[in-house]
Amino acid sequence: MISAARSVKTAGSVRIPTMPSQIKYVLASDIGGTNMRAALADRSGSLVARGSCATEPEKGLPSAEERLRALFEKVASGVPREQVGGVVLSSAGPIDPTTGVYVHPPNLPGWHGKTMKPGLATSLNLPVTIGHDATLGALAESRYGVGKDAQHLLYVTLSTGVGGGIITNGQMVTGAHGHAGEMGHLLVRPGGQSCNVGCDGCLEGIASGGGIARATVTAIENGRSTRMLEMVGGDTSAISSQIVFEAAADGDTLAVEVVESVVDAVATGFADILNTLDPEYLVVGGAVTGALQPYWSDLEALIEDKALPHFKDAVPLYVSLLGDDVSLVGAAAHAFDLADSVSG
Ligand SMILES: [Zn+2]
User: Fold this and answer.
1) Per-residue model confidence as pLDDT tens digits over 265-276
2) Residue 283 near residue 319, CB atoms below 8 Å
3) Ordered alpha helix ranges (H), the chain
4) pLDDT(33) > 90
5) pTM (2 decimals)?
6) Distance 145 CA to ligand 1 centre (A)
7) Are residues 267 and 333 in the same domain?
């Protein structure tokens, strides 16, 4: 649970009771390349009002900023403004966590060098903070998710990309520049298929949705036969990770090979991060995690093989319960922490 503001301050030897924080709500947003979501959250972690709209990045950042501001006004319209503590934005990036300036964001074309942080702070008259989406996901899991009250937790999302966040001693680990936790770029198979950033054989290159599709198409182009070609009417550009998992479930040899390669890569990456950070929980979310469920016991067994011996029969692997809301809930938790650190 989010802790309430400290109720007592000391002044010399006299303990003076203070008013509980009047902050009852915060605003959270999750900005992706396709959709922007906004929510009003309360201290229980509930998203009590929410809205979303298309990001339409090609219309430019000022257009998106204005639509996001309108969403915030809408979700906060039912509560007194003095009860709203602040705003935390979880955004697709790369984004400078201090200034909110985007740095060549691949999924937000045209937003490079721009920021909506100062404009939103002015128009909403609230402090605006930028968070790293997977790190906020880790915070959410440690406060409200499967790892509730955990002090040491890792969150990994296996999806279009592969992201990660770290909680140590109950705190988000952000690193010197706000980029800590990029577990998607662990080199799990040096020289293997590269990710969009260009590292050869990283976890994202092999186990992201796009990586799974590309590995399959490459094998087909190299002459492998597969029923997947029939499934997509001969159009290899229509092969997605979903198609691959469907074909694997039907026993298609190539699809099974690709999925086994993904499970092996994920196990290698997870063994590395378990050995490095020794968490109580390793929580995994994202669409690829859902598709991997039939292979979960294989994954756990492989992690045991690859990790240090003390993880034998003790791999702390869990599936996220917060689903698509994980970054929004984490943004809300962070916003309350920030509001309480000011008012407490
Ligand atoms: Zn990479």
Assistant:
1) 999 999 999 999
2) yes
3) 61-75, 117-124, 133-143, 203-207, 209-221, 228-231, 241-249, 253-277, 287-291, 296-306, 326-343
4) no
5) 0.89
6) 28
7) no
Tell how far the Cα of 239 is from the centroid of ligand 1, in angstroms: 21
Q: How far is the CA of 206 from the centre of ligand 1 (A)?
A: 9
Question: What is the distance in A from the centroid of ligand 1 to the CA of 205?
Answer: 6
- Work out the average pLDDT over 107-114: 93
Asked whether the predicted pLDDT for residue 10 surpasses 90, the reply is no
Q: Report the C-alpha gap between 49 and 53 in whole angstroms.
A: 14
Q: How far is the CA of 213 from the centre of ligand 1 (A)?
A: 16
Same structural domain, 107 and 156:
no
Asked if residues 16 and 9 have their Cβ atoms less than 8 Å apart, the reply is yes
Structure tokens, 30: 């999750």
User: What was the pLDDT predicted at 20?
Assistant: 46
Residue 69 has pLDDT above 90, yes or no: yes
CA of 209 from ligand 1 middle (Å) equals 13
Distance (angstroms) between ligand 1 centre and the Cα of 161 equals 9
Q: Does residue 3 sit within a domain?
A: no
- What does the pLDDT average to over 77-87? 95
* Count of structural domains, the chain: 2
CA of residue 93 to ligand 1 center, whole Å = 14
- Indicate whether 144 belongs to any domain: no
Tokens, residue 265: 């890569």
Per-residue pLDDT, averaged over 297-306, amounts to: 98
181: DSSP letter: T
Q: Looking at residue 305, which CATH number applies to its domain? A: 3.30.420.40
Question: Between the CA of residue 68 and those of 37, 236, 344, what are the distances in Å?
Answer: 8, 37, 29
Parent domain of 115 = 8-138+325-343
Please indicate, yes or no, whether residues 94 and 158 belong to a single structural domain of this protein: no
